[in-house]
Specification:
8 helices; Jelly Rolls; four-stranded antiparallel beta sheet; 2 domains; single chain; about 25% strand; alpha+beta
Length: about 220
Amino acid sequence: MSGHVCAENVPIFNHLSHENLEKISGIMQHRCYAKGEIIYSPNKSCGLFILAKGRIKVYQLSGFGKEQLLRVLESGSVIGEDTLFGSINPNSFGEALTDIEACVIGREEFMELLIQYPAISVKLLEEYSRKLAEADQLTTRTATESVALRLASYLIDLSKVAGADTFILPLSMKELAAFLATTPETLSRRMRQFEDDGFLGRSGKNIRLLQKDALENVL
């Protein structure tokens, strides 16, 4: 894996010349992580982390210690920009779902890059603006999109985490309803509708996706 390739795929770097990309490649650390390894946590910063190969699940722990899945990151994702400026999410964890390969730049090295290449600061602000816009859109979608869409998206992400079409719901229906911003009654109706439509089979917390393509079309 080449750090040059990693840099080319990141918006804050891909405007630079070939020569400068080579210089950045020289300070990138190439790392491999095994499936199940914690990439970052409240007490473990990852620096600027470019996921070159594999998948990562991002989750929080509830007050009862249960995992609440936030999203699944695929190859090409970039995380950790906020930690470069001292910001730490006290509740966020990142765990490797597969063996993964990544390029990492530490905070001090990144600050030196900003001094050498001021244009990166502008690109970084543009990237932050884009992510803030995405966050606003997500908030809007949560308020306006159907519960069926939110539930389908969540179930598909759980399937990715499990690496299989069969998995166990990590939350109670009450907790899941709160996470998806709906009521337990509405959630139960949508789950039953997915069963009636033949999209999934369910026995307690055990879920089996029978027609994943149909669920993806709900999205």
